[in-house]
Specification:
single chain; about 300 residues; alpha/beta; five-stranded parallel β-sheet
C-alpha cells in the first residue's frame, strides 16, 4: 500500500493525486445531488461529468443520482463537475431490504481503503440521512453503523433538517421553544447514539434552497476529520467555496511552522475553532500570548 506519509511536497501531491475522492451514501431524494453541486460550486442545472472505472468518460445519461434502476448506476462510476477537484462515488443508498447494495458498498470501501495508490484510495465518506422521512434510518443503515470497521473517516450529514422542525411542530413539541435548539436536542437524543463509535463527525443541513449556501460547515467538518496532513492538504487544494477555511488552515500552518516547532504536538483545526472567541475579543495593547502544549492542548494567556 502506498502510504500518504510518503508525500510532503504540495506539487508532488497534486501530481500524484490530483483529486480528493469521496463516497457519498444516501437513499434516493436525500439531498446528495444538491450537496455535490454546492461543494463543487456548480449551477443547479449543471450536468455531472461521469467516468467509468477505467477513467473513460461516459454519457451522463447512464448516471442518475440515487437511481435504483438496474443498469443506470454503478458505485465504481466516478462523478465530478467541471472545474472541480473532487471525485465522487454514489452508493445509491440502502433502501428497505437492499442487502445486496450494502454488501457492494462494504466491498467497495474495503477495496478502496487498502492496497491502492493514494489517488485510488477513498479519502472520506459522507453519509446522508434525510430527516423528512418517517424512518430516517433503514435497517441497512443501522447495520452499517453496527458493523463498520474500516479506517476511512465517516461524516454523517442529516439532510433536510428543516423537515424535522416542521415535523416536531406538527406534533406540538415546539410550543414556546427555540425551534433550532429543540430540533437539535431531538436529534441528539434519538439519532446520534446510532452513529456513535463510527461517525468522526456529524452535521445537519438546512436552507439548502438558498443559492449562496455553499455548505461551508460540511467542508470544515471534513477538514477536521482528516488526521493525515497530506490528505488535509489535498482537500484544501480542492476548496473554492470556503475562503474562511483556507485562511484558518494557512494560519494553522504558520503556528505549527514558526511558533511551535517540529517537536510540539501540532496545532489543529479543532484547536483553532476553540479559541476564535479569544482572538476576536483581546485587547491588542495588553495581550500577551503564550502557547503551551500538553499533547494537543494549548493555553492562551492575556
Amino acid at each position: 500500500m502506498e502510504g500518504p506519509t510518503q508525500y510532503y511536497d504540495i506539487d508532488r501531491i497534486r501530481s500524484d493525486c490530483p483529486c480528493f475522492r469521496i463516497l457519498i451514501i444516501g437513499r434516493a431524494n436525500s439531498g446528495k445531488t444538491t450537496i455535490l453541486q454546492k461543494v463543487c460550486n456548480a449551477k443547479v442545472d449543471a450536468k455531472p461529468i461521469v467516468y467509468n472505472q477505467e477513467g473513460k468518460k461516459i454519457s451522463s445519461r447512464f448516471f442518475k443520482m440515487g437511481s435504483q434502476m438496474r443498469g443506470e448506476h454503478d458505485i465504481e462510476h466516478q462523478i465530478t463537475y467541471k472545474g472541480s477537484g473532487f471525485i465522487f462515488h454514489d452508493s445509491c443508498g440502502f433502501e428497505a431490504g437492499s442487502a445486496n447494495e450494502l454488501e457492494k458498498v462494504v466491498q467497495f470501501i474495503s477495496k478502496r481503503s487498502s492496497g491502492a495508490k493514494l489517488k485510488d484510495q477513498l479519502h472520506i465518506i459522507w453519509y446522508c440521512i434525510p430527516m423528512d422521512n418517517d424512518r430516517p434510518f433503514t435497517s441497512a443503515d443501522e447495520l452499517f453503523f453496527q458493523k463498520y470497521t474500516e479506517k476511512v473517516p465517516v461524516i454523517v450529514i442529516f439532510t433536510k433538517f428543516d423537515a424535522l422542525k416542521i415535523k416536531l411542530w406538527g406534533r406540538g413539541e415546539l410550543a414556546n421553544a427555540d425551534w433550532n435548539q429543540a430540533a437539535m436536542e431531538y436529534l441528539q437524543q434519538h439519532f446520534i447514539p446510532q452513529i456513535q463509535g463510527v461517525a468522526k463527525a456529524y452535521i445537519h443541513l438546512s436552507d439548502m434552497h438558498i443559492v449562496n449556501n455553499q455548505c461551508p460547515e460540511l467542508t470544515e467538518k471534513t477538514a477536521q476529520a482528516l488526521d493525515n496532513t497530506v490528505l488535509l492538504k489535498l482537500f484544501v487544494m480542492t476548496q473554492k467555496n470556503n475562503i474562511n477555511l483556507l485562511i484558518k488552515l494557512y494560519l494553522i500552518e504558520q503556528v505549527n511552522s514558526f511558533i511551535l516547532g517540529p517537536n510540539a504536538p501540532p496545532f489543529t483545526l479543532g484547536d483553532f475553532t476553540s479559541i476564535m472567541h479569544i482572538l476576536t475579543t483581546w485587547d491588542s495593547k495588553k495581550v500577551c500570548i503564550s502557547i503551551k502544549y500538553s499533547k494537543s492542548v494549548y493555553k492562551l494567556q492575556h
